[in-house]
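Dear support,

I submitted the protein below through the web form. The confirmation email said the job was done, but the results page showed an empty box. After a refresh the structure appeared. I'm attaching both so you can tell me whether what I see now is the final result or a partial one.
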Amino acid sequence: MKIGIDTFACDGGKSAVGAYILQLLKRIPPSGAQYELFGWEYDRFSYAEAAPELEFIPKCSIDGRTANAIWHFVKYPAFAESRGWRACFFPAAHKRLPHRSPCPSIGVVHDMGAWRRSPRTREHLGPVMRVSIFNSLRSLDRVIAVSNWVKQELMRLTGIKENRIEVIPNGIDMKEFYPRPRNDESVVLIQPFSFRRPYVLYASKLDHPAKNHVRLIEAFRIFKERTKYPHRLVLAGADSRRSEVIKDAAAASPYKKDIFFTGYFPTTSLPELYSGADIVVIPSMHEGFGMGALEAMASGVPVACARAASLPETAEHAALYFDPLNADDMADRMVSLTTNRELYRESRAAGIERARLFSWDACAERTFALIQETAGG
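What the results page shows now:
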C-alpha cells in the first residue's frame, strides 16, 4: 500500500508546520505501508534525517506560491494517479491543496485565524488558494484539526460536517523541552546570540497585527515603569507581514534599549532560549494551537497568554490570562508573575504537569492510524 505525503508549504522543516511534519516522519509506524514524499527540489534533503528510508520525488519546477497552487490543481491529479497511491496526506492543508484528488485525501489544518481578519492577512495564500481553499478543504475525505478551536472554525467557515473532522493535538518532546537547572550566570549564550538575563520572551514571527507584538511592547513599558525591574524583552522570530510596524513601535519605546529582536531563530536552539527566560508572554489573538505556551510550560517557565483562540484550550489552568486588546491587563499578569514568587512557583509546576499530557508519539499514532484507515488499510 503506497501513500503520498505532500511537503509543499512545509517550509523545509523550518516553520511550525515544518516542525510538525518532521516529528511525524520520525514516528512512521512499521505497518507495511510505503510512504513517499513529494515537494520542491531544494527540499530534497530537508527530511532525510527524520525519514532517511523514504523516497523524495521533486515536483513543480517553477518556484512561487501561485505556480505551486496551479500545479496542485492541474498536475497533481495525474501525478498522484501515476504513483498508484491508496491515499495522500497534506500536512499543510490550510495553505496548499489540490481541487480534487484521484485517491482518498487527508489534510491537517493548523490555523484558520487569517479568515477572522481582513483580506490583507490572507496574502500569504496567494490569489489561487484565497479563492479556492474552502472548496479544496471540502474535497478532503478526512480533516485533522490541531485543536477544538480550529475544528469549530472549520465547521463555521466551510460547512464541513463534524464527523469528518478529527481533533489531534500537537505534541511536545520533553527530551528537548524540559526544566533546566538555573545557575547564577547573567548571560545565556546561544550561538550566535547572547541574551542578558532576566528576560521576558515571546517566540513568534513578526506578523502585524496578528501576533499582537505592538501591544506587548506597550505592556512591557507599563511593566518596566511599575516594577523598575531590569528585565529585557526578547522577540524571537523572522520578519513577516508588516514587521516594520513592530520595529517602529520598539524604536519609539522609552525602553527600546531593553528590546531585542533575534530575527529568524533556529528551532534546534529554542529549548535553551525558553529555559533561560524568566516568563513567557503570548499575546497572539489567533493561535490555532498554543505551541509556544506548550514549549514554555514543558521548559518550566511560567506563561501569561491571551484569553483567545486555542490558547486556553492548550494551557488550560496552567497559565495566567489577559485581554489581548488591553496592554494594561497584559502588564498586570507580567507584574504578578515576576513579583509574586509563590504564584511563580505554582504556575511553573502547573505548566510542567500540563505539558506532560501532550505527546508527539500519541499525535503520530492517531494521525497514521487515520491515514491508513482512510486508505483502506
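Response: this is the final, complete result; the empty box was a page-load delay. The chain has two domains: 2-170+359-374, 187-355.
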